[in-house]
Predict the structure.
Amino acid sequence: MTADIIDGKAFAARLRENITGQVAILKDKHNITPGLAVVIVGEDPASQIYVRNKNKSTLEAGMNSFEHVLPENTSEKDLLALVDKLNNDPAVNGILVQLPLPKHINESAVIDAISPAKDVDGFHVINSGLLATGGDAIVPCTPLGCLLMLQDRLGDMSGLDAVVVGRSNIVGKPMAQLLLNESCTVTIAHSRTKNLPEVVGRADIVVAAVGRPEIIKGDWIKPGATVIDVGINRVPKEDGKSRIVGDVEFAAAAERAGAITPVPGGVGPMTIACLLKNTVTAACRQAGIEEPEV
Ligand code: NDP
């Protein structure tokens, strides 16, 4: 293996330490304790685990955590009423509604109802518009985590060829926008892209956000490229159990890349850390103060 492994777990731990320091300053100097409200509807086990982790991490950083667990049969009207209450609650600086929502609830209507200033997921159309136009957006957590790792690894990315595989509103599109803001030459690939190996092979930076196990083959990677693997795919093992793999064929890609994130232990841990970061950002903007330097 020749690539450096980008340790997302260690990076996220450092980021969380920094955020904990910022929260302490906000409490001491400004009497502000950032608060994050997480709303979950229904009993999806994966979502329940995410929400529990988010709650624990929020408290560990010294922030307030407000958890709202609603039954599966909650109506859209009742959920919108809760969002409205949280929008108007000064103790709540960030609101996250865990997706997916049950089928009878219109997700877009709920995302639209969250105050853009408190939209710590960065999914509101105002925040995506601000990101696209170079304004003070709240940036979706997963692409923000990828960007922080790329900045740490590469510093100035100006002029580099970047390929983002995947064009979802949550990962691919905001990731491409962030790389464009870094003055990369950005290509967005997707399921209709012709000759994906050639497109990926041109890239100094590859961000894979597809959701297909090891679809990006190791021998496509340009030697020395930086590879960020967002994918989380559960695949069966021979013993009947399962394991998690990314969208990139890790071992073969690590033979060619300059640096690569593993799965698990790469992008995943950064996502929650960036949620906390966004909550601090939101709290500071709402109070009209600069984010404290730690
Ligand atoms: P989506 O399913 O919303 O988007 C997947 C994208 O991949 C689509 O744009 C799709 O193209 C594209 N795609 C599908 N098949 C191919 C193909 N054969 N070749 C090229 N492109 C293809 O997924 P998300 O963006 O929400 O998530 C992507 C992955 O990242 C998932 O594994 C998810 O679990 C993971 N994830 C990880 C997070 C973390 O914290 N680490 C957070 C969020 C997501 P098209 O638009 O044409 O259909």
Remarks:
- Residues 68 and 74 are 12 Å apart (CA to CA).
- The mean pLDDT is 97.
- The domain at 141-267 is CATH 3.40.50.720 (Rossmann fold).
